[in-house]
Design brief:
There is one protein chain. The chain is mainly β and 90 residues long. Helix content is 11%, strand content 41%. It contains 1 helix and 8 strands, in the order βββαβββββ. It has one helix at 19-28, and strands at residues 2-3, 6-7, 12-16, 43-49, 52-61, 66-67, 70-71, 76-82. The strands form 3 sheets. A 4-stranded antiparallel sheet has the order 3-4-5-8, with helices on one face. A two-stranded antiparallel sheet has the order 1-2. A hairpin with a 2-residue loop joins β6 and β7 (70-71). The chain starts with a strand and ends in an 8-residue tail after the last strand.
Length: 90
């Protein structure tokens, strides 16, 4: 994207966010399962463009004691992700 003879750069970052912020995004963007309500804190991340979230993801410990032969100490699972619309609309 150009503006005159200067390039316009966006500030893009992948950062940790609070679970409350993740859940606000999941609800606002209509995630089918709604907010993450696990008793453990897990890990929440967001892709931010100019400080605003454009995608979020949450990981947490396994719900079952073992999955695919791995224990809760050996694996984590993706428990929520969303973006407000298509990432690359065609």
């Amino acid at each position: 994207m150009t503006m005159g003879s200067h390039l316009l750069f966006l500030d893009v970052a992948f950062r940790s966010i609070e679970r409350d912020m993740l859940n606000q995004c999941l609800v606002a963007w209509g995630h089918k399962m709604g907010p993450v309500r696990r008793p453990t804190g897990g890990w929440s991340r967001a892709v931010l463009v100019d400080g605003e979230p454009v995608a979020v993801a949450a990981t947490d410990t396994l719900i079952r004691p073992r999955v695919a032969g791995l224990s809760r100490h050996e694996a984590i699972e993706l428990c929520g992700y969303a973006q407000p619309g298509p990432i690359c609309p065609a």
